[in-house]
């Protein structure tokens, strides 16, 4: 039986650009600690906000 986690129990971070919460994704499994932005769009906008 696979180990599953309910969506409401996934880790959450706040994007510093849009100030919205975003949840853990399977594709970020290996580097979740390094993820800062919720999307590529926010990642590109980071320099415009500073």
TrEMBL record:
One Pfam family this sequence matches: DUF2256
Domain of life: Bacteria
This protein's name: DUF2256 domain-containing protein
Organism field: Aestuariibaculum suncheonense
């Amino acid at each position: 039986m696979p180990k599953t986690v309910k969506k409401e129990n996934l880790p959450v971070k706040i994007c510093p650009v849009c100030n919205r919460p975003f949840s853990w994704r399977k594709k970020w499994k290996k580097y979740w600690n390094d993820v800062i932005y919720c999307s590529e769009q926010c990642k590109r906008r980071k320099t415009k906000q500073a």
